[in-house]
């Protein structure tokens, strides 16, 4: 055979091929060009999921940081400041050495040593920190011009604190000076007082206040100026509130009162305190910087505070300053209160996060499953023509990573821009997890599907595929995990879980998800049996639509578990989350109702004016005003020689008060319950105006009083020394007029005229105007509205932030569930379209086609809807005993009503389930309409690849 140099046959016409090896087309570029829409959809899904995953921990950090700052700001500087103090210098020192220890230079040196002992993350606010010397025991000031409320002389503390001029501005006069070196024997020093102290104690510029001396003549303190604090609420002034404003002290013995104030000396005038009996002490006050710490620094802050209170930090201070230095602060208690609140809220947020995260992960897996299903023939052909499994998987990983990695980075960037000023590490980890899942889902799915080389696969519907042993073992493992999580939550609750930390918390947070997983696995196994039983009777019906739809629904793909898992998990999370939010709102409403007793409450410590009731009824929004008289310190006793039981005696008008109690569901009763009877038990008026307690008055009592006194008559002494004899006729746990107190409710006609005068009005109305009510009520009364009390319960950003995160997580889970449903329908769309086209060639009408698609998709949607509602109800019933909603509802604030528990919310169960049915039906109708527009011939021509 002859040929040319390049190996081609002689005489062959055509262009010669170039020499050299043949370069194949790049796999990744070819695949992306072949399916740009699928690549774009995957990129959008990964970007959205990565953005949500990265934004979640940053949003949690944001509201936790805001909650910590609110907690620190709400606590007074007196509680948050770390105060160090040391007694007067050692008596063994000479007088000169002792005086030098109280001068500003020595105190400044100690201040520097104290600041050096402060460990991060605790940072001192140098602008508000202070130091100085003061008398720890205020002494009498006998000058006649000073204020004496009850004839007792005021007491004054001498304080020489640094930087007085930097933290105040002169209102009159000038700042005090110490021109000559001040000693313990100095006869006169200069001082300033704040505007509040000057106004209260009647001090003016030029006043001279004499302070007793110690083995010397009294010390004369001349007032040279009156100053106004620049930041009156700052730690410089409020760490020791006495230097800003005086305090009125009441003696416990005779009730006499006297004032205590502070005289602000020059910073270098401290040695003069050694000549007074006021027990001088040195002090250094470290105000923390509350703008810098974040929530994840709380444990470090607590450790730093503990080190300063009684640890190595205090040891270093004692070594460098004074061995007798001691420290005190309430900052550790403030941090502990924040930690307790966060521990009560975090498990609830974790439940929503795990639920939404599970649904999102399932949707990503479904998207990869859809891609693997559509490329099943291509990958099988590659394997049949010699493609190795690692080679195929590597190319699938590469083509997915080219799309997923930039999309994940884009989602991360969007999350960082949307939620700034939070930790970066958790956001990067979350976005990375989403990206890795998206990258490996398709190769792993393909690895399981194409382990063996085969060209034609068998049927994979649930009628032919039987569960393997591995699947059975996996389902049993998940069942054990779910049971353990539910048992842990029921036994320990979220409080114990939040305080224990570790993997146990995550298992508890996964409990609702695991309940949904178990339900999905069980329903997938049981789903075909009722459909097959219905197929027989349906076959005897006229028409082809019903039997055909049931037959197809009963032989759906075996991969139904993922869509059903997504729907059940989303519905369970939505029902659980909706019930949590509804329970929080209900708990706040109930606590506010118990705190006010009605929609509004007007109360005074004295009898209300007679005309006030009419003015209040005429106020806009008021429907009814029920008057009551409340004696909070009434003494109930059986016999004159027995000890009394303190209780609140409530005098009411039985008719209106009973109706109010019934409307509010607060211990309602009929009016005849309080109908007065005589000593012999006959009906009649009590004649209580005399106040002698001769008639027996029926009363409604709290449970504890009923247990103690029973049904026998006993006497009650009121605060005006009148008595009334009562007999317990009914027992109620609560009553509108009194909260968290033992009570007795009687007809106020049985009381004396003075005791029966109303001290409170209980108001009802839809939209009460607080400003109008306060104008009508005037001064000297307390006006509380139920709506205002309820708003006060939402105080910490931890509460509002957790509610927003919970709502967003539930909404995201619902959105991903809808996407999962759409993916499941899209996966079956080509087959359904081809089926409709074939059936139309055999005479099926468009209306019958629509009914066929709706009836075929309805069993799965109905299964998911009913299963989701039942699973959500079961999860709530199982987990409710271990969930405490009190922390997120009232944030640890004093609130009546006890513990707030989780209860089933009907709307949260039914609305998501109905939405699933509507979406499934709508998608089926839309698909039938679109297929009808394309025409049967076009579908049949394009049906080869289907």
Q: Can you summarize the main beta sheet?
A: 12 strands, mixed
Count of DSSP-assigned helices: 30
Q: Pick out the low-confidence regions.
A: 1-19, 497-503, 679-693
Question: What characteristic shape results from the CA principal axes?
Answer: flat
Please report which band the strand proportion falls in: under 5%, 5-15%, 15-25%, 25-35%, 35-45% or over 45%. Answer: 5-15%
Please give the alpha-carbon distance between the first and last residues.
Answer: 48 Å
- Percent in helix: 40-55%
Cα-based radius of gyration, to the nearest Å: 40 Å
Class by helix and strand content?
alpha+beta
Number of strands: 21
The averaged pLDDT comes out at 80
Describe this structure in words.
This protein is α+β, with helices and mostly antiparallel strands and 946 residues long. 52% of the residues lie in helices and 14% in strands. It is built from 30 helices and 21 strands. The strands form 2 sheets. Strands 1, 2, 3, 4, 5, 6, 7, 8, 9, 10, 11 and 12 form a 12-stranded mixed β-sheet that branches. A 6-stranded mixed beta barrel has the order 14-15-19-16-18-17. α1 packs across α12. The longest helix has 45 residues, at 797-841. It is flat, with a radius of gyration of 40 Å. The two termini are 48 Å apart.
């Amino acid at each position: 055979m002859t040929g040319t140099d390049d190996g081609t046959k002689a005489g062959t016409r055509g262009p010669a091929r170039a020499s050299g090896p043949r370069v194949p087309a790049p796999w990744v570029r070819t695949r992306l060009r072949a399916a740009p829409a699928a690549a774009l959809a995957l990129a959008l899904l990964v970007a959205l999921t990565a953005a949500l995953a990265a934004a979640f921990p940053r949003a949690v950090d944001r509201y936790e940081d805001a909650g910590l700052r609110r907690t620190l700001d709400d606590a007074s500087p007196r509680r948050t400041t770390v105060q160090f103090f040391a007694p007067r210098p050692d008596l063994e020192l000479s007088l000169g050495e002792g005086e030098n220890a109280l001068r500003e230079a020595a105190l400044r040196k100690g201040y520097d040593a104290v600041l050096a002992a402060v460990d991060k993350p605790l940072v001192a606010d140098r602008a508000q920190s202070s130091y100085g010397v003061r008398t720890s025991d205020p002494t009498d000031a006998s000058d006649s011009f000073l204020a004496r409320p009850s004839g007792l002389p005021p007491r004054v503390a001498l304080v020489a604190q640094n930087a007085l001029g930097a933290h105040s501005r002169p209102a009159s006069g000038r700042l005090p000076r110490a021109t000559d070196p001040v000693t313990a024997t100095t006869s006169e020093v200069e001082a300033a007082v704040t505007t509040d102290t000057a106004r209260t104690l009647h001090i003016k510029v030029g006043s001279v206040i004499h302070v007793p001396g110690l083995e010397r003549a009294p010390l004369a303190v001349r007032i040279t100026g009156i100053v106004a604090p620049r930041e009156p609420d700052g730690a410089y002034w409020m760490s020791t509130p006495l230097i800003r404003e005086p305090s009125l002290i009441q003696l416990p013995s005779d009730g006499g009162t006297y004032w205590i104030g502070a005289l602000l000396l020059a910073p270098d005038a401290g040695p003069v305190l050694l000549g007074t009996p006021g027990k001088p002490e040195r002090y250094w006050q470290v105000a923390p910087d509350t703008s810098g710490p974040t929530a994840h620094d709380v444990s470090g802050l607590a450790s730093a505070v503990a080190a300063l209170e009684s640890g190595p930090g205090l040891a270093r201070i004692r070594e460098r300053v004074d061995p007798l230095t001691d420290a005190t602060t309430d900052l550790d208690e403030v941090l502990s209160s924040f930690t307790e609140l966060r521990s009560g809220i975090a498990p609830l947020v974790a439940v929503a996060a795990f639920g939404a995260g599970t649904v999102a992960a399932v949707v990503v897996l479904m998207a990869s499953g859809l891609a693997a299903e559509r490329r099943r023939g291509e990958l099988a052909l590659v394997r049949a023509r010699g493609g190795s499994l690692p080679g195929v998987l590597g190319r699938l990983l590469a083509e997915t990573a080219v799309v997923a990695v930039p999309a994940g980075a884009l989602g991360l960037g969007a999350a960082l821009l949307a939620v700034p000023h939070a930790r970066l590490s958790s956001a990067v980890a979350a976005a990375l997890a989403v990206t890795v899942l998206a990258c490996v889902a398709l190769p792993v799915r393909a690895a399981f599907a194409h382990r063996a080389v085969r060209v034609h696969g068998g049927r994979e519907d649930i009628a032919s595929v039987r569960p393997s042993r591995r699947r059975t073992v996996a389902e049993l493992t998940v069942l054990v995990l779910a049971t353990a999580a539910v048992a842990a939550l029921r036994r320990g609750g979220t409080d114990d879980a939040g305080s224990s930390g570790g993997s146990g918390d995550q298992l508890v947070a996964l409990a609702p998800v695991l309940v949904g997983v178990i339900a999905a696995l069980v329903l997938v196994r049981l789903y075909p049996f009722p459909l097959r039983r219905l197929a027989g009777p349906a076959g005897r019906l006229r028409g082809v639509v019903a039997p055909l739809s049931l037959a197809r629904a009963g032989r759906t793909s075996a991969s139904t578990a993922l869509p059903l898992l997504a729907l059940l998990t989303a519905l369970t999370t939505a029902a659980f989350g909706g019930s949590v939010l509804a329970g929080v709102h209900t708990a706040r409403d109930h606590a506010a109702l118990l705190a006010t007793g009605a929609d509004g409450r007007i109360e005074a410590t004295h009898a209300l004016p007679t005309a006030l009731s009419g003015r209040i009824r005429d106020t806009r929004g008021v429907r009814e005003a029920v008057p009551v008289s409340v004696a909070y310190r009434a003494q109930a006793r059986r016999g004159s020689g027995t000890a009394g039981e303190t209780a609140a005696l409530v005098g009411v008008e039985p008719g209106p008060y009973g109706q109010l109690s019934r409307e509010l569901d607060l211990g309602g009763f009929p009016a005849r319950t309080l109908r007065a009877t005589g000593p012999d038990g006959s009906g009649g008026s009590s004649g209580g105006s005399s106040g002698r307690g001769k008639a027996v008055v029926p009363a409604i009592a709290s449970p504890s009083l009923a247990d103690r006194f029973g049904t026998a008559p006993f006497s009650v002494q009121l605060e005006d020394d009148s008595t009334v004899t009562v007999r317990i006729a009914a027992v109620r746990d609560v009553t509108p007029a009194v909260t968290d107190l033992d009570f007795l409710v009687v007809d106020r006609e049985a009381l004396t005229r003075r005791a029966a005068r109303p001290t409170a009005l209980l108001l009802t109305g839809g939209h009460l105007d607080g400003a109008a009510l306060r104008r009508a009520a005037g001064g000297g009364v307390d006006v509380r509205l139920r709506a205002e009390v309820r708003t006060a319960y939402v105080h910490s950003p931890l509460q509002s932030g957790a509610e927003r995160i919970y709502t967003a997580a539930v909404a995201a889970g619902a959105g991903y569930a809808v996407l999962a449903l759409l993916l499941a329908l899209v996966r079956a769309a080509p087959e359904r379209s081809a089926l409709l086209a074939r059936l139309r060639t055999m005479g099926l009408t468009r209306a019958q086609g629509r009914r066929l698609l709706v009836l075929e998709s309805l069993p799965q949607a109905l299964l998911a809807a009913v299963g989701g509602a039942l699973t959500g109800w079961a999860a709530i019933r199982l987990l409710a005993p271990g969930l405490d909603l009190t922390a997120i509802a009232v944030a640890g604030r004093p609130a009546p009503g006890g513990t707030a528990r989780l209860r089933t919310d009907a709307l949260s169960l039914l609305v998501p389930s109905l939405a699933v049915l509507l979406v499934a039906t709508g998608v089926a109708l839309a698909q039938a309409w679109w297929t009808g527009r394309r025409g049967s011939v076009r579908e049949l021509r394009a049906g080869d690849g289907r």
